[in-house]
Amino acid sequence: MAYEFILVEPQVAPYVALIRLNRPKEYNALNLQLMGEIRDALSVLDNDDAVRAIVITGNEKAFAAGADIKQMAGKSAVDMLKIDQFSTWDAIRRTKKPLIAAVSGFALGGGCELVMHCDMVVASETAQFGQPEINIGVMPGAGGTQRLTKAVGKVRAMEMVLTGRFISAEEAKDAGLINKIVPVALYLDEAIKMASAVAEKSPIAVQLAKESVLKAFDTHLQEGLYFERKNFYMLFATEDQKEGMNAFVEKRKPDFKGQ
Is 67 a catalytic residue? Predict the structure, then answer.
């Protein structure tokens, strides 16, 4: 498919695809078209058996510096309801394959929320994260108040949301928002390496494991445990489970087929 605001590489590494946000002059501000393109690209890649993990990135200066305010400034509440921009975010959230964010520079507002839609995060030393919507008279709307609170805790989320303060990559890592920090020159390579490590595993097991981890965000413990166990048992109906366990017993590397 042809896109205007993103670049897609279906095979940046074996079984790993790359989506690069591509509005550099606007610091990758997330307008409606760009978000729609991300949604559409993820849908295609999610249904491609040659893809097992997906990296999302921007450029060295900005992952995404927020939503495109020019598109929203003059809108009324009714206009925003009719646009229904968050249905696109809901579709992104339903991506079954693991999403790895490669972040350098600004990840603010919607950019920070897009990072939190991903399953793992590699950041460069220059990365900054924040929810500064309060500075323009609004608040996060794509999950920022909810996911940020679950990731970093109430008091730190309150500080970021109510003051608009940015946090550094180091603070984000200490808070549990990201996985690792690397030099700017390495952040994308490191994210692809992380995606490749996931892509080596059974894709069915990865999908169900991702579902189970995310379930912890959506429910109480007992229901989450029930969901986890159901998916665990289901994996014993797969050929990949037999291959993985036989390979362990036979002391060889497994060859997972996604069956």
Answer: yes
Q: Residue 148 — very low, low, confident or very high, per pLDDT cuts 50/70/90?
A: very high
CATH classification of the domain holding 226: 1.10.12.10
* 133 is a catalytic site residue: yes
Highest mean pLDDT among 15-24, 76-85, 233-242 belongs to 15-24
How far apart CA 195 and CA 54 sit, in angstroms, is 7
Within this chain, do residues 188 and 70 fall inside the same structural domain, yes or no?
A: yes
Does residue 154 share a domain with residue 229? no
At 28, list the tokens.
């990758």
Catalytic residue among 65, 113, 123, 209: 113
pLDDT of 16-43, one tens digit each?
999 999 999 999 999 999 999 999 999 9
Catalytic pick from 64, 111, 133, 191? 133
Answer yes or no: 200 catalytic. Answer: no
Token pair of 97, please?
A: 């394959």
pLDDT tens per residue across span 186-222:
999 999 999 999 999 999 999 999 999 999 888 887 8
Q: Which residues contact 256 (CB under 8 A, 6 or more apart)?
A: 200, 201, 202, 203, 240, 243, 244
Assess whether 154 and 226 both reside in one domain: no
Q: Are residues 215 and 172 in the same domain?
A: no
State the catalytic residue, choosing from 41, 62, 65, 67: 67
Q: Which of 109, 110, 130, 244 is catalytic?
A: 110
Place of tokens 């999403």: 99
- Residue 207 sits in the same domain as residue 195: no
Rounded to whole angstroms, the Cα distance separating 28 from 58 reads: 7
Domain with 225 in it = 203-250
Does 37 qualify as catalytic in the annotation? no
Q: Which one-letter DSSP state was computed for residue 4?
A: S
